[in-house]
Amino acid sequence: MIRRLNDPSLMAKIHRFRIMAQELEWLEEAIAEGEDQWGELAGMHCRTIRRLEMADTLLRIQDQDEGLVDDILRGSKQCGRRT
Q1: pLDDT 10s digits, 38-80
Q2: DSSP readout, 46-76?
Q3: 6 φ/ψ angles, rounded to the nearest 5 degrees
């Protein structure tokens, strides 16, 4: 029907419109998939945080760090005595 008008400029505009509509549809699908993936990752992140909290991870790390600092301080005192 449009070809009957024999207007190359109009045909080009319509073609461009169709291509842009296809790109928009593709982009909307990609965004929806990305949102789904983001939701899954955000949920996994929250569950991991809960597991770490339940395991008292921060407290355990702090306890280990304090022991490490104590060991280093003891070691430095011993090195100081040798000289």
Answers
A1: 999 999 999 999 888 888 888 887 777 776 667 777 776 676 6
A2: HHHHHHHHHTTHHHHHHHHHHHHHHHHHHHH
A3: 55, 45
Domains of the chain: which residue ranges? Answer: 2-82
List the structure tokens of 51: 């597991």
Q: Which amino acid is at 53?
A: E
As a whole number, mean pLDDT of residues 21-48 equals 96
Scan for tokens 């008008």, then name that residue.
5
Enter the tokens of residue 49: 């945080």
Report field, pTM of the whole predicted structure over 0.70: no
